[in-house]
Each structure stands twice: as C-alpha cells, then as structure tokens.
Amino acid sequence: MMTAEEYIQSLRDLRPRRVYAFGEKIEDCVSHPLIRPSINCCAMTYKLAEMPEYRELMVTSSSFTGKPVNRFCHLHQSTADLVNKVKMQRLCGSMT
Predict the structure, then answer these.
(1) What secondary structure letter does DSSP report for 52?
(2) Whole-angstrom Cα distance, residue 16 to residue 3?
(3) What is the pLDDT of residue 43?
(4) Is the CB of residue 29 less than 8 Å from the CB of residue 21?
(5) Rounded to an integer, what distance in angstroms lies between the CA atom of residue 70 and that of residue 60?
(6) Most-buried pick from 15, 71, 84, 91 (CB within 10 A)?
(7) What is the pLDDT of residue 73?
(8) Helices (H) and strands (E) in the chain — how many of each?
(9) 11 and 39 in contact (C-beta within 8 Å)?
(10) Contact, 51 vs 14, CB < 8 A?
(11) What distance in Å separates the CA atoms of residue 62 and residue 10, rounded to the nearest whole number?
(12) How far apart are CA 49 and CA 3, in angstroms?
C-alpha cells in the first residue's frame, strides 16, 4: 500500500499535459489551489490507513490479490463493504 506522500508523488509523476479549470490552463495540478484540497482528502485516506487506531476501517483485502489495500481504492463486494465505505468517508470528512 502507498503512503500519503507516495500517493501525491504518483500524481506528480503522471504529469498530465492538458488540464483546464474555468478556462485556465493548469500547469501543476498537484499544487493548484483549486485541486489541492481534493488531493489532500484522498491523501488523508492513506495517512489514516497507517494509523493503528484506524487501520481496521481504512484497510481491507483485495478481492483480486488478497493483499491489503486502501479501502478508498477497494471495489466493494458486500453490504459490509459499503457500510465501511460510508464510515471511512465520514471519518475522512471529519479529519479534513
């Protein structure tokens, strides 16, 4: 699983060529003040996954590989997965 810093770096490494917001070309998506709050929220899911008190909620097993994955990236397979997704979203909302 990635850390929050690795997640942000993975976005930098993508280096999208054409991104516009409200008619303005955005050169650096990761640092742009319109986009960065969303990136910070997604990064928070990785930070919480590293914290022992939130690990059980934030980390689950991939149905494809069986390896631990961030619940934010998980394809939900059951009602319990969806309930935990809502709990995860509420936690992230309160933390960001």
Answers:
(1) T
(2) 21
(3) 94
(4) no
(5) 6
(6) 71
(7) 87
(8) 4, 4
(9) yes
(10) no
(11) 20
(12) 8
Alpha-carbon distances, residue 1 vs 28, 48, 73, 89 (angstroms): 25, 12, 10, 19
Query: Who contacts 87 (Cβ-Cβ below 8 Å, separation ≥6)?
Result: 57
Mean pLDDT per 10-residue run, the chain (96 residues)? 93 89 92 92 93 95 92 90 93 87
pLDDT on residue 54: 96
Alpha helices in 15-78 (DSSP H): 36-50, 55-58
Say which residues have a Cβ less than 8 Å from residue 91's Cβ, sequence separation at least 6: 48, 54, 57, 58
Q: In residues, how long is the chain?
A: 96
Q: Look up residue 48 and give its two tokens.
A: 């919480």
What's at 60, amino acid-wise?
A: T
Element (H, E) at 20: strand 20-21
- What letter represents residue 42's amino acid? C
